[in-house]
Amino acid sequence: MLREQLGAQADTIRQLTHQLDWFKKQLFGPKSEKQVYDIPEQDNLFSSGEAPLPETPAEEEKRPIKAYQRGTGKKQRDDDCLNDTGLRFTADVPVEVIEQLPPELTGPEADQYEVIGSKTTYRLAQRASSYVVLKCERPVFRRKGTEKPVTTPAPFNVLDNSLADVSLLAGLLVDKFQSHLPLYRQHQRIQQAGITLSRSTLTNLVKRAIDLLRPIVDAQTDNVLRSRVLAMDETPIKAGHQGRAGPQKGKMKAGWFWPLYGDADEVVFTYSNSRGRLHIEQVLNDQFSGTLISDGYAAYARYAEAQEGITHAQCWVHSRRYFIEAQKDHPEQAAEALQQIARLYQNETAINDQGLTGEKKRQYRLDHSRPVVSDFFQWCRKQLAQGGLLPSEPLTKALNYVLSREASLTVFLEDPDVQPDTNHLERALRPIPMGRSYAQSSIMCSCTFRRH
């Protein structure tokens, strides 16, 4: 009885330690998953001929090294303006010339001095936000001999009866959704520029501009759904809480962006307030048939199983992450799995380097990657058959994860248009987590200012 309790406690401690390591990695660990060199347990990941080696400088280039030596790489681009203060800027940056005259050259004895040269100092300055009021003078006229006046029509505007020029609308949208600058901060910037405008006006302008863009988004969505290979993912976002009586001030809840990545490298973001399978059904809506690439979220697999004409492919990078999490408890087995997965990506690199497409790309994968995939899954079954692994251990979860998805992880071997992962889609998702990071940084800075 005591032995069982100790075993249960040890298992609990192992799980909690694993969770703690995961949180530490999220907070302090590197975000990139690119493996650029062999780890000790992966002696054969790259052959000696493929491993990049540092270049050794020639003997004649050796010179004494000071306590600190700057890098010898090229620092100045061709189109840069560089000066003795270290300030770098392109030729397009406006430069204001300020003449600084000493009292000697402006006083009563100025003729006693002569200028023999000059020195230039550069400083970086900031000006107020650039907003301009467009003043359009429209003459009112009438034909001679008549009394009816005629007013010149106003120039075309994107929004009828609006004070906003199209440049302001574009700036509001780009700053808010691409640069993650909230409207209240944009409102502050406008006020600091000397312009009086209510924040609700900015909100209404953004809403009206979004309504104008809806037909474009609908057309993009229809085009993406015509793709033969479609990648889909989901990522959380904080959204305003909508109650029965309307939006509730200060209330935020989790929403979800569901991006679609089509054959023409076109990305469309759809939104839902849930992460359920219903949104997948509503978006695809029997309009898509082909290969659906996704991560391991079970909702995609269940949808694909219920639909005819849809083949489900899954991501090797997400599978790889499970073995990365198992490295601490089972370094040798995890390293072996990572080494085999790395061989697949070496083959993909060779395909890209040789510019293979179509049937040639498919045949290369069948000749080089299919044996690697077959050996990998055989190795995974062998690890489970040996026993000694607890169900809660990270390696057990990693093995069960890939074995339960064996069919979908091998789809890319037969179809040259299918990527082995969803990296191309995750790169398109970067603006979303960047916005979350900016929001968290703002909260932390705000708390720091309050404490001090």
List the helices and strands and how they pair.
Blueprint: H1 2-28, E1 80-82, E2 88-90, E3 140-141, E4 150-151, H2 166-178, H3 183-192, H4 199-225, E5 229-232, E6 235-243, E7 246-261, E8 267-272, H5 277-284, E9 290-294, H6 298-306, E10 310-314, H7 316-325, H8 331-354, H9 358-385, H10 394-403, H11 406-409, H12 411-414, H13 423-428, H14 431-451
Parallel strand pairs: 5-9, 9-10
Antiparallel strand pairs: 1-2, 3-4, 5-7, 6-7, 7-8
Helix pairs in contact: 7-8, 7-10, 8-9, 9-10
Report what the structure shows.
- The chain is of the alpha+beta class.
- Among the domains are: 128-224, no CATH class; 226-241 and 250-315, Ribonuclease H-like superfamily/Ribonuclease H (Nucleotidyltransferase, domain 5), CATH 3.30.420.10; 316-421.
- 44% of the residues lie in helices and 12% in strands.
- Strands 5, 6, 7, 8, 9 and 10 form a six-stranded mixed β-sheet that branches.
- A hairpin with a 2-residue loop joins strand 6 (235-243) and strand 7 (246-261).
Q: Any descriptors?
A:
452 residues; alpha+beta; Nucleotidyltransferase, domain 5; six-stranded mixed beta sheet; two-stranded antiparallel sheet; 14 helices; 44% helix; extended; disordered C terminus
Summary of the model, kept short:
The protein is an alpha+beta fold and 452 residues long. The protein is built from 14 helices and 10 strands. Among the domains are: 128-224, no CATH class; 226-241 and 250-315, Ribonuclease H-like superfamily/Ribonuclease H (Nucleotidyltransferase, domain 5); 316-421.
